[in-house]
Amino acid sequence: MYAFDIERPATLAEAVAALSNEDAQALGGGQTLIPTLKQRLASPEKLISLTGVAEMKGISSSGGVLTIGGGVTHGEVASDGSYKALSDLASNIGDPAVRNRGTIGGSVANNDPSACYPAAALASGATIVTNAREIAADDFFVGMFETALDEGEIVTAVKFPIPEKANYQKFVQPASRFALVGVFVAKTADGVRVAVTGASNEGVHRWSAAEEALSKDFSAKALDGLSVSADDLIADLHGSAEYRAHLVAVMTKRAVEAAA
Amino acid sequence: MTKVTMTINGKAVSGEVEGRTLLSSFLREDLHLTGTHIGCDTSQCGACVVHVDGKAVKSCTMFAAEANGATVATIEGQANEDGSLNVIQAAFQEHHGLQCGFCTPGMVMSAAALLKDNPKPSVSEVREYLEGNICRCTGYHNIVKAIMAASGQDVSAIAAE
Q1: Is the pLDDT of residue A246 over 60?
Q2: Per its record, what are the GO molecular function terms (chain A) (predicted)?
């Protein structure tokens, strides 16, 4: 690997100060960034490791909202269990060793178009908390690998209102184990939200036609006849855009049937 | 260069590392603990699995500087105090859970992490837990059998396939 410096601040204030250097890059659990550095797809001069920041650890629940620190690993979310659909999702990211390092803050900040967490955040109507502000998930995920984060801004926590019913269904890309298509469905008193990952060149997005139908009748039957346009969906050797469009409808039905 | 100090297999160790030094490189090249293998260097194969503060991690996908202050366990620390194989290692030998042996350090470390959290796993739980450990020789069957045996469960019903 090319040479760079690494700093490991112990507090959020120190991390924010260190990231004010324009050549610095935040490092979460590193399960995406370190392979990226090895391939030289990114080459920051300085990495600011966030794994020592105590303020970004821990999971707490209050008033029906689950707050997960940005530095919390997938493994910790998987074993938490207070938002079952979210813990189930976390337990199927990568493999056990990856889950022991990868963090929720890193995942949402990276906004990989095939990552699982963005679908959970968007469908749950989560709030992304940073060192500077709070951003609704609807405004946070801007496009493929793009978020509303400013330079040097750190995801310190993600707040999930726990829905009445929810489920995530992931059709696994057999080589990478990322979502070829993943659908998160969340039902609350205000209606149903459906978020799709893995399918679109625009990254994670909501499927509004399905949300309308499911808000009237929360059953797989309510989705009969609904389909997704293949326009602007991802097409690669693992699946055509049409195949992904078909999978979106199938995985949404499965998520509704499994929602609890 | 940054100074790092950590406890590895019960011994306090310190060294000077660059920012880019991976934990796997620090273990192998600086400390000569070459039992931790680097199979792919892309976090897929699991030959480099070690425990950091009790959790299985891929040491090729973590910087040595991030392990500063941590407690690390590697394959070199797995044997019993008298040098004999521990229960997992002995089960790998007994059930022929290895052939070329390259993936074995990672397999044993992953198995140890699994059995700590789940002392009596089912066969499917073992297979699921090994998702991030690749073996190109055995077809996994005897690895799974060895881990089941190490957990004290009867493996006579696990037929060779």
Answers
A1: yes
A2: FAD binding; oxidoreductase activity
